[in-house]
Automatic annotation (TrEMBL):
<feature type="signal peptide">
    <location>
        <begin position="1"/>
        <end position="23"/>
    </location>
</feature>
<dbReference type="InterPro" id="IPR030395">
    <property type="entry name" value="GP_PDE_dom"/>
</dbReference>
<dbReference type="GO" id="GO:0008081">
    <property type="term" value="F:phosphoric diester hydrolase activity"/>
</dbReference>
<feature type="domain" description="GP-PDE">
    <location>
        <begin position="40"/>
        <end position="345"/>
    </location>
</feature>
<dbReference type="InterPro" id="IPR017946">
    <property type="entry name" value="PLC-like_Pdiesterase_TIM-brl"/>
</dbReference>
<dbReference type="Pfam" id="PF03009">
    <property type="entry name" value="GDPD"/>
</dbReference>
<keyword id="KW-0732">Signal</keyword>
<protein>
    <submittedName>
        <fullName>Glycerophosphodiester phosphodiesterase</fullName>
    </submittedName>
</protein>
<dbReference type="GO" id="GO:0006629">
    <property type="term" value="P:lipid metabolic process"/>
</dbReference>
Length: 362
C-alpha cells in the first residue's frame, strides 16, 4: 500500500515538476500572460462535459466551481436572432427533437426559434449514452442562451472567463457583431473594448477570424487548426471513405499536413490577421471520437511560439496526454475533464466532480 502511495505521489511530483520546468522555459507562458490568459490554460470544453450534458447548466456550473479558467461554448443563432450554445449543426444527437418536432431532426439550429429550442430536453441523451454517469436531474435540462451562460460565469465564487467559438459562421452572417453586442451589453467589453483575457474568441474559419478582429480588435483570438478540405492541405488526398479505415480516429491519426511550409503559412496568416494563439487538434493515446490529427508536434508548437502565438490543444482528458503535450510545448488544453486537468497541473479542486454537481443542484 505504501509503495502504491509512493508511486502515486512520485507520478504527481513528476507531473508538477515537468509543468514547472516548462513554465520557466516556455515562450508560450510569456505570450499567454501578455494577453491576460492564465497559463497553463484550463478550458472546460462544452463545460464539464465528461460528467454532465454538454453545453448545459450542470456542465458549466460544475466546470465553474471546479475552477476552470474558461467555459468553452459553440455559438449558433436561433431563427429569431438569439445566440445559443449548441455544438452540432442539428439537434439530433443531444436533444429529443425527433420526439418534440417530428420530421425536423435534420433541420439546422437556425430554423428553430428560441421558444422552440427551450421545449427540448438536452439532458436525457446523456443519461442514455453514459448510464454510469447518469443523474436523474439531467432529465429536462434546457439549451442555454449566451446570456444564460454569462449568468453562470458571473454567478459563483469562482469567476471563469468565456472561450467562445463562432460555430459554422457561414450559416450565420453577422454572428460576430451579434456576439460583440451581447458582450458589450453585459459589460464584458470595457470602454476601449479590452476585456483583459476574460474572453477568448475562437474559430476554424479564416473569414470569421477577420470579422471578429474587425468587431473586437482587442479581444484575444485563436484560429483553430484542422487538416482537410478548405483548411490546412493534407499530404495525401485520400478521403476517409477511400481509406478503408473503419474508425475515423485511426484515419485522422494518419492524416498529415502537406508540408512544413503549409503549416507555417497558416500560422503566419493567423498572426497577421489578429490571432494571439492557435488551437491545434490532438491524436489521443486512447483514441475515441474526439481524437483527430496530430498538429501538436514539438516543431509545430515551436513554430507557433516563434510567430508569437500560444497553443491551446483540443480536446484532451487523460494524464498521459497532458504530460506528453505539456512537454511538447502546448500552453493549455480544451478538456472535457476539468477536474483531471486541474489535478495534473497541481491545482486540485477542493471537491470531486460528483460533490460539485450535487452542490449546484444536480
Ligand atoms: O473549439 C475547440 C474545440 O472545441 C474544437 O472542436 O468540434 O468540439 O468545437 P469542437
Ligand atoms: Ca468548440
Amino acid at each position: 500500500m505504501r509503495r502504491c502511495l509512493a508511486a502515486v505521489l512520485g507520478t504527481f511530483v513528476l507531473a508538477v515538476a515537468s509543468v514547472t520546468a516548462s513554465a520557466e522555459e516556455s515562450p508560450g507562458r510569456t505570450l499567454s500572460e501578455a494577453a491576460g490568459v492564465p497559463w497553463p490554460t484550463v478550458i472546460a470544453h462544452r463545460g464539464a462535459s465528461h460528467d454532465a450534458p454538454e453545453e448545459t447548466a450542470p456542465a458549466y456550473l460544475a466546470a465553474r466551481d471546479l475552477g476552470a479558467d474558461y467555459l468553452e461554448a459553440d455559438l449558433q443563432r436561433t431563427k429569431d436572432g438569439v445566440l445559443v450554445a449548441v455544438h452540432d449543426d442539428t439537434l439530433e444527437r443531444t436533444t429529443d427533437v425527433a420526439k418534440v418536432f417530428p420530421g425536423r431532426e435534420k433541420a439546422p439550429v437556425s430554423q428553430f426559434t428560441l421558444a422552440e429550442l427551450k421545449r427540448l430536453d438536452a439532458g436525457s441523451w446523456f443519461n442514455a449514452a453514459y448510464p454510469e454517469r447518469a443523474r436523474s436531474k439531467y432529465v429536462g435540462v434546457r439549451i442555454l442562451t449566451l446570456d444564460e451562460l454569462i449568468d453562470i460565469a458571473e454567478g459563483g465564487g469562482e469567476t471563469p472567463g468565456l472561450y467562445l467559438e463562432t460555430k459554422a459562421p457561414g450559416q450565420f452572417p453577422g454572428i460576430e457583431e451579434d456576439l460583440r453586442k451581447v458582450l458589450e451589453n453585459r459589460g464584458w467589453l470595457n470602454a476601449d473594448g479590452e476585456p483583459q483575457g476574460k474572453i477568448v474568441l475562437q474559430t476554424f474559419e479564416k473569414s470569421s477570424l477577420e470579422l471578429l478582429q474587425k468587431s473586437m480588435p482587442k479581444v484575444p483570438k485563436i484560429l483553430l487548426l484542422w487538416v482537410g478540405d478548405g483548411y490546412l492541405a493534407a499530404k495525401s488526398p485520400t478521403t476517409f471513405a477511400q481509406s478503408g479505415e473503419k474508425i475515423k480516429a485511426d484515419f485522422y491519426a494518419r492524416q498529415e499536413v502537406k508540408s512544413r511550409e503549409e503549416l507555417f503559412a497558416w500560422l503566419d496568416w493567423a498572426k497577421a490577421n489578429g490571432a494571439l494563439g492557435v488551437g491545434p487538434s490532438v491524436t489521443l493515446t486512447a483514441r475515441g471520437d474526439q481524437s483527430y490529427m496530430d498538429l501538436v508536434q514539438p516543431w509545430m508548437n515551436q513554430a507557433a511560439h516563434e510567430r508569437g502565438l500560444f497553443v491551446h490543444a483540443y480536446t484532451v482528458d487523460d494524464a498521459v496526454d497532458f504530460d506528453q503535450l505539456s512537454k511538447a510545448g502546448v500552453d493549455g488544453f480544451f478538456t472535457n475533464r476539468t477536474d483531471q486537468l486541474l489535478r495534473f497541473l497541481g491545482r486540485p479542486p477542493s471537491q470531486g466532480v460528483g460533490e460539485v454537481l450535487k452542490s449546484v443542484g444536480y
